[in-house]
Amino acid sequence: MAEEEIKKGLDGVVVDYTAVSKVNPDTNSLLYRGYPVQELAAKCSFEEVAYLLWNGELPSSGELADFTARERAGRPLDPVVKQVIDALPTTSHPMDVCRTAASVMGARHSLAEDSSREANMAKALDLFAAMPAVVAYDQRRRHAAGRPVEPVEPRDDLGYSANFLWMTFGEEAVAEVVEAFNVSMILYAEHSFNASTFAGRVIMSTLSDLHSAVTGAIGALKGPLHGGANEAVMHTFDEIGIRPEESLEEAADRAKTWMENALAQKKKVMGFGHRVYKHGDSRVPTMKAALDKMIAHYGRPELLGLYNGLESAMDEAKGIKPNLDYPAGPTYHLMGFDTNMFTPLFVASRITGWTAHFMEQLNANSLIRPLSAYNGPDERHVP
């Protein structure tokens, strides 16, 4: 009998069809429902992109008005969810908070056991609307150092990105910061059958509920090989040392030396390389342009020096290009987000892509149940 071929990590295995997104091999560009993500980031709000992912088309003005009204109505933090978050220690990772909050929201949802397309669309929109309040409140309570703190109430006169920043920092962000944040949300929204999306599709294939699939996806995204790289990028910057008084050139030289030493020690440096993109992550130029604007806005050229030094040293030594997490990490840092909140920001964005996939899974469902090749002891018996 021929030995079975094992595809570790399902590498190269095509398991199903999807109409949600693809990487165009001719242009190396990521497409959402056929639209290049760079165009969406340049011309659309995150609300429009969420609508596109769920419905297959960009909204008309009337459809967008109805959609945004529904999203804004779901923004306040559920008092019961707040109580559960308050019961969690601030030493827990914020991804644990996101996972728990999603589970509680599912258990409390009026359509919890309704698996119809309409019900799942409503649950997806409710998660999309409510998760920013979870992430924002969690950062605020961690800064309160044990003192009582209340959520910043959402504003229905602000778009999704502007309101997210408002609830986190308690002040209205300037247009440049809102735009950069909006770009990041769009770029993180979807990426085909990545680990967390596939984990959630497996859960959905059992005919479990949408919130359970999202909870499982959050668990998968917590892993540093998938969603934690944007945090790891800032840990690298911190290890090198962020010196605001330093020039771009000085910072670049120190970063390059650090990278050369790290590679000589065979240290894994996060934020570089991608399993899908072989010639560079197509999302990076758009996110890097947003980072450049934030560096100029906040007057922090030393961060650009660290960025450039690490990037050039990695390229010279290995020919490996940055992925989306590399420019996203310092962008979120400049905005004022704590490093351990970066992956929860990823969650808030990816809820849109996840739930688009989970509803697609149900449309033509087949239980996902792969086989394994046994390599344990031969049959034996208890004496």
Please give a structural write-up.
It catalyses: oxaloacetate + acetyl-CoA + H2O = citrate + CoA + H(+). One of its GO terms (molecular function) is citrate synthase activity. It is a single chain. The chain has 16 helices and 3 strands. The mean pLDDT is 94. By secondary structure, the chain is an all-alpha fold. 58% of the residues lie in helices and 3% in strands. It folds into 2 domains: 39-225 and 344-364, Citrate Synthase, domain 1; 229-335, Cytochrome p450-Terp, domain 2, CATH 1.10.230.10. It has a 3-stranded antiparallel beta sheet with strand order 1-2-3. A hairpin with a 2-residue loop joins strand 2 and strand 3. Helix 5 crosses helix 6.
List keywords for this structure.
globular; Citrate Synthase, domain 1; 383 residues; Cytochrome p450-Terp, domain 2; 16 helices; three-stranded antiparallel β-sheet; mainly alpha; single chain; 2 domains
Average pLDDT number: 94
Q: What fraction strand?
A: under 5%
What's the structural domain tally?
A: 2
Helix fraction by DSSP (H/I, runs of at least 4): 55-70%
**Distance separating the two termini:** 31 Å
Topology as a string of helices (H) and strands (E)? EEEHHHHHHHHHHHHHHHH
CATH architecture of the largest domain: Orthogonal Bundle
Beta strands, count: 3
Fill in the CATH topology of the largest domain: Citrate Synthase, domain 1
Give the overall shape, derived from the CA principal axes.
Answer: globular
Major beta-sheet overview: 3 strands, antiparallel
Number of helices: 16
Structural class: mainly alpha
Strand line-up across the major sheet: 1-2-3
> What is the fourth-level CATH superfamily of the largest domain?
Citrate Synthase, domain 1
What is the radius of gyration computed over CA atoms, rounded to a whole number of angstroms?
22 Å
Flag low-confidence runs. Answer: none
**Which CATH first-tier class of the largest domain would you pick?**
Mainly Alpha
